[in-house]
Design a protein that fits this description.
Helix content: over 70%
Distance between the termini: 65 Å
Radius of gyration: 20 Å
CATH class: Mainly Alpha
Bound molecules: protoporphyrin IX containing FE
Strand content: under 5%
Number of domains: 1
Length: about 230
């Protein structure tokens, strides 16, 4: 019997499950990074809360175990999105008018999921190089290497003082919001948790969660750039 994941529905299922897993990660990641704004609001200077949050995330054994799982989630999601897009293009052939960009009643994000995904992947490459690589592999003079995750605040804050970086994060957050506003409810639909009553509800919830996550990241970057210059 052929493997279920060699079928289109199996591939879509894998994409949906990995996508839902990545949304969980994004919610936790947003929570930790919101300390960048909460720190000055609570009067804790020099990123005390943020450094503690990053320290916990980089040293907690349970989270360390989850790191390869997270990397796997990204790889599965990206690889299967490429396979499914190629499959769909082949299946449509020359009949692109049937579901192509000119279809008026299909939401914009739904028609541009792959393009949005490519934009997010480019963002992710820059993001990982700027923070993860420096914190885990190469080190950086701004980090206190004696305590893992310590002084992440200085590195992150200084990085956001660069105008193109800030723009990249604001645009990345908006692309993420569009990507999730379709992807989130579509994933539930694929795993079978929807019907004619639940689809419209899930669509509304998806849009709200997507924009909270996307604009959350954009706002953090913008606020760091505009409001909290390091003394
Ligand atoms: C204001 C925006 C953001 C800030 C300040 C931020 C900050 C960081 C920092 C400091 C790290 C390295 C430390 C760590 O591993 O926890 C990191 C890792 C990471 N970030 Fe972000 N991030 C932001 C947005 C995003 C977005 C939008 C995504 C996904 C689309 C993302 C995905 C990741 C991934 C996959 C890792 C590596 C996995 C990990 O070790 O947790 N980040 N981020």
């Amino acid at each position: 019997m052929a493997n279920i994941f060699s079928y289109s529905i199996g591939r879509k299922l894998l994409m949906s499950l990995s996508g839902l897993f990545l949304v969980m990660f994004l919610l936790v990641h947003l929570l930790v990074n919101s300390f960048l704004i909460l720190d000055p609001l609570f009067g804790t200077t020099e990123g005390v809360m943020y450094n503690a949050g990053v320290h916990f995330m980089t040293t907690n054994p349970l989270i360390k175990i989850m790191e390869p799982v997270l990397a796997g989630g990204f790889i599965v999601h990206i690889v299967y999105s490429i396979i499914l897009t190629i499959q769909n293009m082949r299946a449509r052939g020359s009949k692109t008018y049937a579901s192509g960009n000119k279809t008026p009643d299909v939401e914009w994000s739904s028609k541009n999921m792959f393009v949005l995904g490519i934009a997010l992947l480019s963002f992710l490459v820059i993001h990982i190089a700027q923070f993860w690589v420096k914190m885990k592999i190469t080190g950086d003079p701004r980090l206190d290497d004696t305590v893992e995750g310590h002084n992440a605040y200085v590195l992150v804050h200084e990085t956001f003082q660069i105008t193109w970086v800030m723009i990249c994060y604001v645009v990345g957050g908006i692309a993420l919001a569009f990507h999730l506003s379709h992807g989130f409810w579509s994933a539930f639909h694929t795993v079978g948790l929807s019907n004619s009553v639940w689809i419209p509800r899930l669509q509304k919830v998806s849009v709200v969660i997507a924009w909270i996550i996307g604009l959350g990241f954009s706002t953090i970057a913008l606020v760091q750039y505009l409001v909290f210059p390091l003394s």
